[in-house]
């Protein structure tokens, strides 16, 4: 094939968001309309009975179909990931906002016309594959970009910092946080003695601990959480000039979380909550979108901060170095097969393309070893890059050969380099042909096992994070410590943790101590002792004491979008059809969804004779699975609902979790039977909104009513309710 034709063909396949889909299709199978066969293609005539000597006799060895079917089944499981075992994934594409050649030569960023295919896997860290989605944990956010220069994996998390500063401590961290070795308890939870024992001896973990104690640890939706590359990476441009970069994913739908009580209940009601939400959003065409941003630091400014850029327990506050948005990712297709794609995808921070490079962050350096190593055991050998989901969309040519499950049939007589018998091929690629060049960083030093002093400010940014939270977020952090440390049996560990927290914030430490039956931290020497070799930061020009950007409330409560939210519309026989249709339409227009909830499944007849089918009944769903609740009028419907304990509990619980509620027509009367009646103002004429409860006793202003309800949904939560006395709420 002429070079030119080949190049054009390659461009055609790699220069489109469907390139990966087309490649995957070549490996797909669909049994629709087909006969059942053995793995070798022989058609099977009967699969429900084994081959026996007589219908009541023993099964005979000759039954090749039985043996093959059973043997394959016996070997179906592979080891789950040692961390991030539970995940869900989606296909999509990334598109750059415009060329940034001054920053990087990576082609995926330099052609805004190009759609680079991606596969994204989002995961919890600690729980096993079958654990629940909504546990308190960091979420993994791993993206494989199938670029025209090979695969780039951005293997990040939904929190911008990590627990440890050096990769060598990772096995200890993971052992400490996973269930305890003697009894394998607790599952998918950090709330146990081993973990807090470790943390209480590891001051460097305190910044990340503050993030994990915040509501970021249970995102409302995978489409509503941020993502971070965590480490400082490098961009390298065509002139070989390098700049430091931190990667950020910003969800277009805004950042929203659950509340802890809700998250725990969801873990029972629907352990697949986030996974289902992602799946359904994509099936409905409500595609999750994330903007990719970078914070860029010139090499001259490497030491301009009050922390070390190589320290993965530190952020660069957005107020110090603003984020430049460079592109957007859209997730628009669910995987066809969970195992083949989501389970077998193999990420590796070392998968980079020209224009992206590493720094000496010792955590990143540790990761560069671990990821391939782990795939060797998990996926059974060195050929995991040949599994369809892992293949790049560009051709692969090298002298790697053989190994378990080799797929490629390498032609030719040579499998070594240099060679003359194969015409010197495959050849080394000069930089002009896209050959990867490592950034020529000058490095020299003594071999030494020690931590740089510049990493030893363990508490400065933990303080920064805490001081940047709103009052309600601070309260949630305190409650999280009450929960986590309240589950720790060893009082010495609790006490040590209280002293550790005192290094972040004295007032918080006292509040935590009070909640867990421990003495407040009065001994200054002890506070210093747990801080170990901590060296407080020295303020520099770029220092800040708060960073509003790290508070979800500060950055989000003005967000106008209702995209991706789910609303329960509770009805019964005789409901008001028109208002349901009106509110439903408004929700659909904003790319939110509505589910009709009633006592039983089936068709419900409205007051005007129209019917609606229920999506969920009171047993199959719960208020915790929705962002908001709407109850329309209809005298008969409301009269029936007044006597349903489930409806009353639905309302009270949604109120307790600070969610928007809306009542129209006769439904306002329902409030009499709930704990809300005393808490909200009596409805006036027209539409009345109080603490996120929207009420209209008649249907005269339904346009306004729906509008106000949408605003409340966009706001997500009404924390002012939390300051009230909740004792009256069941
Ligand atoms: Fe990972 N990590 N990690 N990690 N990590 C893995 O690789 C590891 C770290 C992250 O959806 C494993 O294929 C070490 C930071 C994600 O498949 C393993 C260290 C960040 C995923 C591994 C870290 C991450 C993993 C387990 C410290 C955020 C899931 C299975 C030196 C920037 C990827 C696997 C997926 C998975 C090792 C720290 C993110 C064992 C040694 C920091 C999102 O290789």
UniProtKB/TrEMBL annotation:
Major enzyme class: oxidoreductase
Keyword set, alphabetical order: Heme, Hydrogen peroxide, Iron, Metal-binding, Oxidoreductase, Peroxidase
Keyword Cytoplasm among UniProt keywords: no
CDD domains per record: catalase_clade_2, GATase1_catalase
Residue ranges of every copy of the Catalase core domain listed in the record: 37-425
Biological function: Decomposes hydrogen peroxide into water and oxygen; serves to protect cells from the toxic effects of hydrogen peroxide.
Official protein name in the record: Catalase
Organism of origin: Aequorivita aurantiaca
